[in-house]
Amino acid sequence: MESELSRIGVSIPVDLLSRFDEIMHQTGYSSRSEGIRDSIKSYIKYYEWVCEVKGERVGIISVIYNPSQHGISEKFSSIKYSYPEILISTSSIYISEREILEVIILQGNAEEIKLFNENIMAQKGVKYVRLSTIELTND
Fold first, then answer.
1. What is the pLDDT of residues 47-62, one digit of tens each?
2. Of 31, 36, 50, 81, which residue is 20 to 30 A from 8 by alpha carbon distance?
3. 68-72 contacts: CB < 8 A, separation 24 or more?
4. Which residues make Cβ contacts (< 8 Å) with residue 58, sequence separation at least 6?
5. pTM of the full structure
Protein backbone atom coordinates (compact mmCIF):
# COMPACT_ATOMS: atom_id res chain seq x y z
CA MET A 1 0.00 0.00 0.00
CA GLU A 2 1.31 3.44 -0.90
CA SER A 3 1.82 6.11 1.73
CA GLU A 4 0.05 9.43 1.70
CA LEU A 5 0.56 11.57 -1.40
CA SER A 6 2.81 14.60 -1.61
CA ARG A 7 2.53 17.33 -4.24
CA ILE A 8 5.70 18.60 -5.91
CA GLY A 9 6.57 21.10 -8.60
CA VAL A 10 8.99 20.00 -11.30
CA SER A 11 10.54 21.96 -14.16
CA ILE A 12 10.67 19.86 -17.34
CA PRO A 13 11.57 20.94 -20.88
CA VAL A 14 8.44 21.30 -23.02
CA ASP A 15 9.57 18.79 -25.66
CA LEU A 16 10.34 16.16 -23.01
CA LEU A 17 6.98 16.63 -21.33
CA SER A 18 5.17 16.49 -24.69
CA ARG A 19 6.87 13.19 -25.53
CA PHE A 20 6.04 11.84 -22.07
CA ASP A 21 2.39 12.85 -22.49
CA GLU A 22 2.25 11.11 -25.89
CA ILE A 23 3.57 7.90 -24.37
CA MET A 24 1.18 8.14 -21.42
CA HIS A 25 -1.74 8.53 -23.84
CA GLN A 26 -0.56 5.62 -26.05
CA THR A 27 -0.13 3.31 -23.08
CA GLY A 28 -3.48 4.17 -21.53
CA TYR A 29 -2.47 5.97 -18.37
CA SER A 30 -5.37 7.85 -16.82
CA SER A 31 -3.19 10.72 -15.62
CA ARG A 32 0.25 12.24 -15.92
CA SER A 33 0.74 11.71 -12.17
CA GLU A 34 0.20 7.97 -12.55
CA GLY A 35 2.81 7.82 -15.31
CA ILE A 36 5.31 9.85 -13.31
CA ARG A 37 4.80 7.60 -10.27
CA ASP A 38 5.45 4.49 -12.39
CA SER A 39 8.52 6.12 -13.96
CA ILE A 40 9.94 6.93 -10.52
CA LYS A 41 9.26 3.37 -9.32
CA SER A 42 11.04 1.98 -12.38
CA TYR A 43 14.05 4.24 -11.77
CA ILE A 44 14.21 3.16 -8.12
CA LYS A 45 14.12 -0.54 -9.10
CA TYR A 46 16.92 0.02 -11.64
CA TYR A 47 19.01 1.94 -9.12
CA GLU A 48 18.52 -0.78 -6.50
CA TRP A 49 19.59 -3.40 -9.06
CA VAL A 50 22.74 -1.40 -9.86
CA CYS A 51 23.50 -1.11 -6.14
CA GLU A 52 23.29 -4.90 -5.73
CA VAL A 53 25.90 -5.59 -8.44
CA LYS A 54 29.04 -6.96 -6.78
CA GLY A 55 32.36 -8.60 -7.67
CA GLU A 56 34.37 -8.60 -10.88
CA ARG A 57 32.28 -7.52 -13.85
CA VAL A 58 32.33 -6.36 -17.42
CA GLY A 59 30.28 -3.19 -17.68
CA ILE A 60 28.75 -1.64 -20.77
CA ILE A 61 27.57 1.95 -20.43
CA SER A 62 25.46 3.45 -23.21
CA VAL A 63 25.36 7.25 -23.09
CA ILE A 64 23.56 9.78 -25.25
CA TYR A 65 24.69 13.35 -24.74
CA ASN A 66 24.65 16.78 -26.31
CA PRO A 67 28.19 17.50 -27.60
CA SER A 68 27.53 21.25 -27.66
CA GLN A 69 27.00 21.32 -23.89
CA HIS A 70 29.83 23.50 -22.60
CA GLY A 71 32.72 21.43 -21.27
CA ILE A 72 31.10 18.01 -21.56
CA SER A 73 33.84 16.50 -23.74
CA GLU A 74 36.51 17.60 -21.27
CA LYS A 75 34.50 16.25 -18.34
CA PHE A 76 34.04 12.87 -20.06
CA SER A 77 37.78 12.74 -20.81
CA SER A 78 38.59 13.56 -17.20
CA ILE A 79 36.30 10.79 -15.94
CA LYS A 80 37.85 8.28 -18.35
CA TYR A 81 41.38 9.23 -17.30
CA SER A 82 40.39 8.82 -13.65
CA TYR A 83 39.64 5.11 -14.18
CA PRO A 84 42.48 3.75 -16.38
CA GLU A 85 42.51 0.41 -14.58
CA ILE A 86 38.94 -0.46 -15.65
CA LEU A 87 38.46 1.40 -18.96
CA ILE A 88 38.72 -1.07 -21.86
CA SER A 89 37.22 0.73 -24.86
CA THR A 90 34.98 3.56 -26.02
CA SER A 91 33.18 4.15 -29.28
CA SER A 92 31.20 7.24 -30.31
CA ILE A 93 28.90 8.09 -33.19
CA TYR A 94 26.79 11.10 -34.03
CA ILE A 95 23.14 10.07 -34.10
CA SER A 96 21.99 13.62 -34.84
CA GLU A 97 23.45 17.13 -34.87
CA ARG A 98 22.79 17.43 -31.14
CA GLU A 99 23.33 13.88 -29.97
CA ILE A 100 26.28 11.55 -29.66
CA LEU A 101 25.90 7.92 -28.67
CA GLU A 102 28.92 6.70 -26.76
CA VAL A 103 29.42 3.11 -25.68
CA ILE A 104 31.96 2.59 -22.90
CA ILE A 105 33.26 -0.86 -21.99
CA LEU A 106 34.75 -1.38 -18.55
CA GLN A 107 36.16 -4.39 -16.73
CA GLY A 108 36.88 -4.61 -13.04
CA ASN A 109 35.34 -4.25 -9.63
CA ALA A 110 31.62 -3.51 -9.67
CA GLU A 111 32.01 -0.64 -7.20
CA GLU A 112 34.44 1.16 -9.53
CA ILE A 113 32.17 0.55 -12.52
CA LYS A 114 29.21 2.01 -10.60
CA LEU A 115 31.23 5.09 -9.59
CA PHE A 116 32.28 5.61 -13.21
CA ASN A 117 28.61 5.32 -14.28
CA GLU A 118 27.44 7.78 -11.60
CA ASN A 119 30.07 10.31 -12.67
CA ILE A 120 28.85 10.11 -16.26
CA MET A 121 25.19 10.39 -15.18
CA ALA A 122 25.89 13.55 -13.18
CA GLN A 123 27.11 15.56 -16.18
CA LYS A 124 24.93 18.34 -17.56
CA GLY A 125 24.05 17.59 -21.18
CA VAL A 126 23.67 13.84 -20.66
CA LYS A 127 20.29 12.73 -21.98
CA TYR A 128 20.44 8.97 -21.39
CA VAL A 129 22.66 6.56 -19.48
CA ARG A 130 22.20 2.82 -19.14
CA LEU A 131 24.59 0.45 -17.39
CA SER A 132 24.54 -3.27 -18.11
CA THR A 133 26.93 -5.66 -16.42
CA ILE A 134 28.05 -9.23 -16.89
CA GLU A 135 29.59 -11.26 -14.08
CA LEU A 136 33.07 -12.57 -14.81
CA THR A 137 33.38 -16.29 -14.28
CA ASN A 138 36.34 -18.66 -14.39
CA ASP A 139 34.62 -21.13 -16.74
1. 777 777 788 999 999 9
2. 50
3. 68/98, 68/125, 69/123, 69/124, 69/125, 72/123, 72/124, 72/125, 72/126
4. 88, 105, 106, 107, 133, 134, 136
5. 0.72
